[in-house]
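Appendix B, Record 12. Input sequence as logged:
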Amino acid sequence: MSVFIKMNNNRERFEATSVSGPLPRPMGNFISRHSIRKVLIIKLTSLGDVVHALPAAAALKSSFPFLSLHWVVEDRCAPLLQGHPLLDSVVIYPRKEIQSLLRQRKWGQALNRFIRLRRSLRELKADLSLDLQGLAKSGLMALIAGARHRLGCFGLKEFSFLVSKSIPEGRDLHAVDRNLMVSTFLGAERTTPVFHIPIQEEAREWAEAFLRKNRVSEEAVLIGIQAGASLPQKCWPVKKLTDFLAQVSQLPGLRVLLFGDEEDRQKLRPFMDRLPPEVINTIGDLNLRQLMALIQKCRLFLGADTGPLHLAVGLGLPVIGLYGADDPGKTGPYGTAHRILYKRLSCSPCFKTPVCQGRFDCMEAIEVDEVLQAVLKSTGFSRSASPTLQNRSLPEAVVQGLE
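Logged structural output:
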């Protein structure tokens, strides 16, 4: 299940519908016919993309429990997969280390680190590699892994299509469905997608202690909010975000966990001293395991098209997605329990090539009241719980868009 757009008075109303379309033509009993026992999954980054690939791995393991699954991933996303019960091993591509060595012009050390990565992949002796990224860097991983059979998702780009064979179907699908097409093509049964993201006990205990330290009671309504995104055209304006935080913090019994990276910290620095006391600011202070553990404690998550938003979906939270530059039908929060605010302008979606000269009109068009109304509906608060909304009428189309 995914999300599609139904236009109504130039506003967008989002409903859930199936977009899985026709199943791909399976390759017969490919797994058994070719004696496939070891499979290398290639999905290096980013965080949201890795989350989107988990259901494909789960589908393979469910249909072919004898398979030994391995995954190569970049260092920054590795904690998401390390210790995962579906996987027999995780091979880390140390991109950050290699880039650092190259910047220092330590060419020999960088080459040695790459050779060790190649050795680790070769030692797997994978029978089949699955390129779910479809880029040059994932094509390189497939090449140096040297599996007997190399397949990839629909639409392999750059030179990856020269290394792996793309399956013939998957156009215009949500990223989760596109990845699942690969496992279905291999003969796996198509069932409800499973996002299984285990939280390590140490991280869970850390999160509980962190919340106690910040006096978050067990009865509190805890919502997580992602402050920024990887691209400026994905970000809700900082002024609107801070206005929203001031208003949502007035809801009785509600606490907010504010997430983000060091870049978000710099953007919000002028506003930091104005954050309400109900907002717990963790921006730039968490590692990935701590982020996962805290998100799992939330009742609701809000953010733009970012890795933490999709991580929250994978952890089973309802989310509110703020979309502008990206197509929520392809990378929106997966499933039916979510709400999406999206203004389809004439230039939407622009993806990585905005044409608005830095105004980012699509994100500017998302109003604070709309987001606050979405939070009320998602958490069960009535309008009267918000001093901002109880005496204010929202445009009818906006209210319909949140039904």
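The first strand starts at residue 2 and ends at 8.
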